[in-house]
Amino acid sequence: MVLLDHLTASASLPNGIVVRENAIEEEITALRDDLLRIRIARKGPLPEDASWAVLDDARHSSVAVTPETAEGHVGFRTRLLHVEIDRSTMALTIRDLNGNALQQDARPTRFEGGAFRLYKAFSHEEHFFGLGDKTGPLDRINQSFTLWNTDSYRFQESTDPLYKSIPFFMSYRAGRAIGVLLDNTWRSSFDFGKELPGVYSFGAVDGPVDYYVLYGPSPKQVVESYAWLTGKPPLPPLWTLGFQQSRYSYYPQSRVLEIADHLRADHIPADAIYLDIDYQEKNRPFTIDRERFPDFAGMIAKLKAEDFHVVAITDLHIAMLPGENYAPYDSGTAGDHFVKNPDGSIYTGRVWPGPSVFPDFVRAQTRTWWGTLYRDFYGMGVAGFWNDMNEPSVFDTVSRTIPENVIHRIDEPGFTRRTATHAEIHNVLGMENSRATFDGLKALNPNLRPFVLTRATYAGGQRYAATWTGDNSSSWNHLRMTTPMLENLGLSGFAFSGADVGGFAGTPTPELLTKWLEVAAFQPVDRDHSEKGTGDQEPWIGGPEQESIRRRFIEERYHLLPYLYTLAEETSRTGLPMVRPLFLEFPDAVPDRHPIDVDPEASSEFLLGRNLLIAPPHYPDELDHYAVEFPSPDWYDYWTGKKVPKPQEQSVANSPLPASATDRAPLFLQVHPELASLPVYVRAGSILPIAPVVQSVHETPRGPLTLRIYAGSACEGELYLDDGNSYAFQHGAYLRMKFTCEAAEEGFHLHVAAHEGSYAAWWKEIRAEVYGWTPRRNEISVNGRTKPLVAEGSSAATVFIVPDDVRGFDVELR
User: Among this protein's residues, is 391 annotated catalytic?
Assistant: First the structure.
């Protein structure tokens, strides 16, 4: 064992510092004033400067620093950070300019053979988030995790590892946040005080010591910096935000069409139907079972005519079928695209098709070849592709994956050409599989936005694919687990994510399916999916009463599509997730600045964007009253438009309020759970764009665009729209609108700015609904022209309609 524990030499760099302890070298550089990179070499020079996760431009960024030396330490200063290395212990401390320690070594870095571990001190006020969709509470404190992509069918709350390896987490303490990315693809682990109280640690079994520290100070800034470092999710096709129906599996062809017809006949809005492996001949990727699907292309065309998009599964393994005219195997063999055993033979493992081979996705030419395999399906009109089993899952090994000594051949721009064992490549293979699919689809149709859904991935994988939480179960607990999993995925770069609605393994009760569909209506990917051998799980299962409730919530999702798509576009620019923990938007929600999400009363809540708060029961199968905790003082009920009342003062013994005022949120509400309802609230000062219901995103809405305006401070809103499919928005073919309002006792003012971009709106009028403000004189003035305001009878809002001539307008109510 080697410990990095005292400094023997140091040298300043224009953008940082290099320190040495005999044969060990540590380099700390500033990529930006708020973002540091730390690398350690055990023997000789630093390892190859290459990354699957971090963008080249970000990795090679640099800012000038000011060296700082003192009797006890060396270091440097950026415009936002102080970096200190203790001369006697080599301990690294990073502080803000006010002297607050943001990260501090708790003990020397430990090396054992190829393995390493770093130890950092933390206080009792600290909280940890991230690492993707690990199970358990939102806060990672007192937990430990392994990152090794694993097929975890029927995972439970204690299951670890899972399908993804995203070695990024956020540390949050009293309003100050930092992010940490360990860019190491080997099996790694993270411990947040479980082994050593007051110490968090991370390390890997081999590979480079290469990590980044991202300073906020706000958690939002950390998330945006992580997106700058590893990439932002691309803007998805609009239809992917619609309702999606899936099953393992829909077959034969008549069954697929029956599902589509039933959705349309029952007027349940939907935009996608998924095909799992049974559409293939003997489960062989890129084939079609012609007995079950005698006219596959005709089926796709018929579904397209009914405004359905088909998403087809393509697992990453290829059936080993020499001499049987199986083109993926034959062309893959001819191009030498499969991973090898140590003796140079092609590795084979058993998966769904039987003996299978595995593309070597760390070769650029292999990814290009893989992309060409989609030509026929894309040509037939298949709209999206689902990369499953790409941990990779293998049935006939003890490890349930490719053996660690199997050989990959890295042949990738920016990397040295070399061989690497599967132990190094395992955690990135799923990401590179989805990358090959995404890039291949773009090559086949450069102006059409691809949709790829992946199960396994690595940091940076958000650049290529949406994801879901894998093979969950049909249980109330799995519904409860979904929210923190999606929140932590969003904090880890994956904004476009979801869970199998209703649960994959097992048959949900009608009540469970209903409640899950309600909650999923407010999450990024809304896909109802279930496994073979379970009961049917479509929205009409369980009878007309259940179907009616489910339809209403799916319709509400379609009402919200302008808001959802605007959030998706924001994500593509900033990296901010669509589903957000409350502390991301409200880091100062409580006086002591702890993240409000860790309070029991807020544990089930989440934000959709910055304006909608969804508050399902903390334990969704329980029938007891529960408390909703709000992160700011002014909110409206989404369903009624009424302002949430301030709670009456009551004794602590009979109150949901914490005993200490310093821990108290500004607003509480007692809620009684009901099957047909889901508490949803709107932040005061929000302006929500709302559309008429359509049966799919390709149906033009009929009627005006509605703006729901909730009076409050800093009142504003935005809408983004484009054709929903192409890249024409990059050349100006988009529509962006911004709205502001001011409410005072003497009058109300709404400003709708002129349309930006060349894309034409589907509406001719804007219907405004103003909540929380009542006119005294019932007068309305539009661009200076005044007339009487005719109020709608029973509405909780003041309502008016104004023509939208794209030039913008101002409205005064009095």
Answer: yes
Structure tokens, 622: 């329980």
Q: Note the pLDDT of residue 787.
A: 86
Name residue, tokens 């399908």.
163
Task: Please tell me the predicted confidence (pLDDT) of residue 654.
Answer: 45
pLDDT of residue 790: 76
- The mean of the pLDDT values for the chain is 95
Place of tokens 């001949």: 281
Check if 71 is active-site: no
DSSP bridge pairs for 200: 120, 192
DSSP per-residue string spanning 214-243: EE-SSHHHHHHHHHHHH-PPPPPPGGGGSE
**Is the preceding peptide bond at 775 cis, omega within 30 degrees of 0?**
no
Which of 404, 332, 398 is CA-nearest to residue 366?
A: 332
Q: Write down the catalytic residue from 191, 471, 531, 538.
A: 471
- Tallying the residues shown for the chain, one arrives at 814
Dihedral of CA 614/619/621/625: which sign? negative
Q: Which domains does the chain carry?
A: 2-230 (2.60.40.1760), 239-318+362-398+425-574 (3.20.20.80), 579-674 (2.60.40.1180), 703-813 (2.60.40.1180)
CB 578 within 8 A of CB 565: no
* Pairing mode of beta strands 667-671, 243-245: unpaired
Is the model's pTM score more than 0.85? yes
For the CA atoms of 109, 110, 113, 115, what is the dihedral angle to 10 degrees?
Answer: -70
In this structure, the dihedral spanned by the alpha carbons of residues 543, 546, 551 and 553, taken in order and rounded to 10 degrees, is -170
pLDDT of residue 786: 87
Whether 711 shows a pLDDT value over 70: the answer reads: yes
- For the stretch 25-50, pLDDT in tens is 999 999 999 999 999 998 888 999 99
- Are 630 and 668 within 8 A, CB to CB? yes
For residue 349, the SS3 value is: strand
Nearest to 666 by CA among 615, 743, 596: 596
**Catalytic residue (one of 388, 487, 526, 634):** 388
